[in-house]
Specification:
Number of domains of chain A: 1
Order of helices and strands of chain B: HEEHEHEHEH
Number of helices of chain B: 5
Structural class of chain B: alpha/beta
Strand content of chain B: 15-25%
Structural class of chain A: alpha+beta
CATH topology of chain B: Udp-n-acetylmuramoylalanyl-d-glutamate--2,6- Diaminopimelate Ligase, Chain: A, domain 1
Number of helices of chain A: 5
Strand order of the largest sheet of chain B: 1-5-4-3-2
Distance between the termini of chain A: 29 Å
Largest sheet of chain A: 5 strands, antiparallel
Shape of chain B: globular
CATH superfamily of chain A: Histidine kinase-like ATPase, C-terminal domain
CATH class of chain A: Alpha Beta
Strand order of the largest sheet of chain A: 1-2-3-5-4
Shape of chain A: globular
Number of strands of chain A: 5
Helix content of chain A: 25-40%
CATH architecture of chain A: 2-Layer Sandwich
Order of helices and strands of chain A: EHHEEHHHEE
Largest interface: A-B, 25 and 21 residues
Radius of gyration of chain B: 13 Å
Oligomer: heterodimer
Radius of gyration of chain A: 15 Å
CATH topology of chain A: Heat Shock Protein 90
CATH class of chain B: Alpha Beta
């Protein structure tokens, strides 16, 4: 935050955010900022939505499951790249975690409207490239790309 | 359908965003699961929900939701109202339960998205 909003889309813009675990009131602030930023840059609304949803799901996942982490968003004229790195328990079986409806979120998270097991599938659905790596006991890194088609 | 028409059909009242009552809504989604909303909802929608926490506003923001209807007379707190105002999202509150509220809007011609497997 705090950067000028007058930048053009000619060069790369790098945005970085810290995400705290279990802070449900603030969860989504990073995604919200990125969305606003992209809008101001005049990025196509469909692209902005794809980025916003994938990033928000990722951010929520970090709040629910990790011990905290960082989000890095790199905006260039061709694409928006999102790198979400967390410290946490990691994911034992990624294939299982990717299945729609599979969730390890506790009941208190379900009461908040999340934990339906749609987070990772949604991230994959809305991004053009999706890559996840996880080490049990260390943490998880998700890389996503959304391409900006040439007009 | 406009926000105003939704408000009248549901006998709802404005919590905020009255100035945007002429905005058009093209489809609707009724859910307490925000993950499902993020998975299936269309743009320019109205979201009907019985869930009342800041993540409802955030989810609506990500999906470009025009209007949120809180069913069963639920009332968002000041933080949520402020968030909605900043994002120009209309908040309505109706005494109807979820099923009835959705039914009333369906009868007025509003539709949801395509089936998940369709």
């Amino acid at each position: 935050m705090g950067e000028s909003i007058n930048e053009s889309m000619n060069e790369k813009i790098v945005l970085k955010y810290d995400v705290d675990s279990n802070d449900f009131t603030r969860a989504g602030e990073a995604s919200s900022n990125v969305k606003r930023r992209l809008k101001l840059l005049g990025v196509d609304p469909d692209i902005v939505r794809k980025v916003a949803i994938s990033l928000y799901e990722g951010e929520i996942n970090m709040v629910i499951h990790s011990y905290g982490g960082t989000i890095e968003v790199i905006i260039s004229p061709e694409e928006i790249e999102m790198i979400l790195t967390d410290r946490g328990p990691g994911i034992e079986d990624i294939e299982l975690a990717m299945q729609a409806g599979y969730s390890t979120a506790p009941d208190n998270i379900r009461n908040l409207g999340f934990g339906a097991g749609m987070g990772l599938p949604n991230m994959k659905k809305y991004s053009d490239e999706f890559h996840i790596e996880s080490t049990v006991g260390v943490g998880t890194t998700v890389r996503m790309r959304v391409f900006i088609p040439k007009e | 359908m406009t926000v105003k028409e939704i408000k009248e059909a549901l006998g709802a009242r404005f919590i905020c965003g009255e100035e945007f009552q002429d905005r058009e809504v093209h489809s609707a989604c009724g859910s307490d699961m925000m993950s499902d909303v993020l998975a299936f909802m269309k743009e320019k929608s109205v979201l009907l929900t019985g869930l009342c926490n800041p993540q409802v506003i955030r989810t609506a923001e990500m999906m470009d939701v025009v209007c949120i209807v809180f069913v069963r007379g639920k009332m968002p707190d000041e933080t949520m109202i402020e968030m909605a105002k900043e994002r120009e999202i209309v908040l309505l509150s109706t005494g109807h339960r979820m099923f009835s509220a959705c039914g009333i809007l369906y009868e007025k011609g509003l539709r949801g998205g395509a089936p998940a497997n369709g």
